[in-house]
Amino acid sequence: MLHIASPTNTEKHSPWRMSVAPMLDWTDRHCRFFHRLLTKNTLLYTEMVNAGAIVHGGTERHLRFNAEEHPVALQLGGSDRALLAQSAQLGAQWGYDEINLNCGCPSERVQRGAFGACLMQEPTLVADCVKAMLDVVDVPVTVKHRIGIDQNEEYGFVRDFVGTVAGAGCRVFIVHARNAWLKGLSPKENREVPPLRYGVAAKLKQDFPHLTIAINGGFTTDAAVQEQLALVDGVMVGREAYHNPWWLVRWDEVFYGATPQHLSREAVEATMVDYMAREAAQHGTHWYAIARHMLGLRHGLRGARHWRQVWSNHRLKDLPAHEVMALAHQPPAVLG
């Protein structure tokens, strides 16, 4: 089993230098445990969690995480100051290293709850929410947001939003460098259709040099990340980190100057199987719910398709995870 070491070299870099984005239905605690096997220093985010759900009876279900995940941030959704303050306080008590407010999700379901990207239209409310959280926690309270709403691409809109929220004490902004179209586009289309405008994040850093500005949106290569790290304080990677997780193995060396990791995919997979056994014994979690997050582990390798098919085969659910792993590494003919 792999040993998950403590983060290294973090004193040299911003804690937000590299992070994996909060992704609904994806970045649960099992996904984060997997990602932590690959990178020691990268900041990991939870899925967005409704503040009301945490306060009204779902505290343990929503806040439980593995000690190995640190540094880990809790992302909250909501616009009620009292609920956000309560849920932030609970998050800090549970040991999260940061509380993040979602001001970027464009889905209509989230809009009906009066939070997500639509909050960018109410910067004073966001500032009040941030202050309410800062008043009750000792960890950073940060904001993730878009660069505009609908077809409004005026820089002044996002500049004024950041300025207002910073006035309440927020010092870290994660900028998804696309507009959010609140009508007419699905959440998936909102990740692809509005054009990326990286220059907006760089301009925010120029105008607010005392703030930490990280950028999110469309990063898939070391070179693209390095280009942005010359302009802003950090880069957040989303879907590429999930679908091609082996990229994360390079991050500690390339972006933090750490000693190269000598990991193998086989060792990571074996550690995940040990984790599956631990989760089954402690929480009754089925391995199938965990294995889905590591299906990209062998991305681009020969035999990867067969390996994925085995680990996602519902007909094998009744087998112990270590037997499934053995099948995944046998020739396809063995399964018939």
UniProtKB/TrEMBL annotation:
The active site is at C105. Its EC number is 1.3.1.91. It comes from the Bacteria. Belongs to the Dus family. DusA subfamily. The keyword RNA-binding applies. This is tRNA-dihydrouridine(20/20a) synthase. Catalyzes the synthesis of 5,6-dihydrouridine (D), a modified base found in the D-loop of most tRNAs, via the reduction of the C5-C6 double bond in target uridines. Specifically modifies U20 and U20a in tRNAs. It catalyses: 5,6-dihydrouridine(20) in tRNA + NADP(+) = uridine(20) in tRNA + NADPH + H(+); 5,6-dihydrouridine(20a) in tRNA + NAD(+) = uridine(20a) in tRNA + NADH + H(+); 5,6-dihydrouridine(20) in tRNA + NAD(+) = uridine(20) in tRNA + NADH + H(+); 5,6-dihydrouridine(20a) in tRNA + NADP(+) = uridine(20a) in tRNA + NADPH + H(+). Its cofactor is FMN. CDD domains: DUS_like_FMN. The keyword Flavoprotein applies. Transmembrane segments: none annotated.
